[in-house]
Acyl-CoA synthetase FdrA (Limnobaculum allomyrinae), 518 residues
Amino acid sequence: MSVKHKVFANLYQDSVSLMQISAQINKLPGIEQASVVMGTETNLIQLRDAGLDNGCQAGPNDLIIAVRGEDEACDEALALAEQRLKSKPEESNSGGVRPPVLTSLEMAKETAEDANLALISVPGDYAAAEAIKALNLGMNVMLFSDNVSMAHEKQIKELAREKHLLVMGPDCGTAIVNGMPLGFANVVKRGAIGVVAASGTGLQEVSCRIDQLGAGISQALGTGGHDLHEEIGGISMLFGVDALANDPETQVIVLISKPPARPVAERILQQAQKAGKPVVVNFLGADAQEFHTSGITFVHTLADAAEVAVALLNQKSIPASVAQIAPADEKVLAAESVHLPAQRREIRGVFAGGTFCYEAQLLCKQQGFSASSNTPVKGNTQLSDIWHSQSNTIVDMGDDDFTNGRPHPMIDPTLRNQRIQEELSDPKTAVVLFDLVLGYGASLEPADELLEVIGQMREKLGAKNLPLLIAHVCGTEADPQVRSRQINNLRQAGVLVAGCNAQAALWASYVARQQAEK
């Protein structure tokens, strides 16, 4: 087994491109692990921790390809990655003359004077400085970069507030601005519902379900996960609420977050009351009765947020929460689980979306099933070994603990698939609960390798001994992966596919309860 690397000076690529290249070479035969990253101090530490540092000498402006595997496979992987990195766009039809390479925000602004938004995807050590440059140039900012300190985030957002500009992020993975999907966004219809979310996959779930219900999105603005912490004060969400309140195309506003700091939540809700438009709020896991806010509709789940927003838009009555199991679902689940051996009693959740993991934990806990997790909700247990489950376990495979030196599972689901295979092999597992997240930047065939794993396990264990698989597919028909196609592929493999993440979690809880009663 060899560890090899190559370093390129001053060869920058955006984070998503690097993750996609990492995912491609990770799949090569004979490769155990691969990573393509900039040579920042943080990334060098992560390479070392992942066993990919064989004396690599690189600076923060250098790009590193690091691989571990069979000797010839490592050479092939390095060559392929170099080819991808150095590939040039096709010549234009205007005499083969290329425009000058833009090496700074200032140059870009001179080229496109009307540009008013900068998408920043550089290593976290440098992201704050670039965001401040963009704000001083009069541009709003989508800060895709993570690993930005709270102190720097506060500095950036206070400057944005002074300049009456919006900062989405840090670690803002998705947004839709004027119909343009940014980051890991989905292809959704334009419409009259505006969303502000401190959660990437939460925003995706709500916007996709709104699309599925026949409505559309005016704007979908991410804030980054720390925005509603007391130290930041909800600066970006407050700006977003005000912007949507003044947007003539937005008729209904949806706000999404994990439980905010109490003073920040009150400030957000006071601002929302002044919007003059219906506002739907989903503070995941928070008790709505604590806030006593009139004129705002609080909902229990992400799917509820979409359902209620569409109902308000169409001036219809508020629908019942999706957080319940229909009698027809009970019959199907009971019939599917009747053959499970009595010792299979545990729920194993394997998620690519952090908010999906969070919501599933909340709902399973409300149904009486506490769980261990690498990102536990209040009342759940911190997983002692993130690589191995214990009792009921629900993990976020997109958390930094799993992605250090590896692509995110939405880009490369290999590690997620391996974890699902382990859970299927465990004789205590009753049900494996997982998500499939579609959209730009995500794997084009997210289910293919997983279906192979399921087929192998079915042959090994026999259909009657295999745990139930329950999935939720977040996406739309217009996404590159086509939601219905992914659902059909999963169902043909025997996977039960729920309509939303909340429903999937409730189904898993029902199966676990049936097993506990055997």
Notes: Residues 124 and 148 are 5 Å apart (CA to CA). The two ends are 48 Å apart (CA to CA).
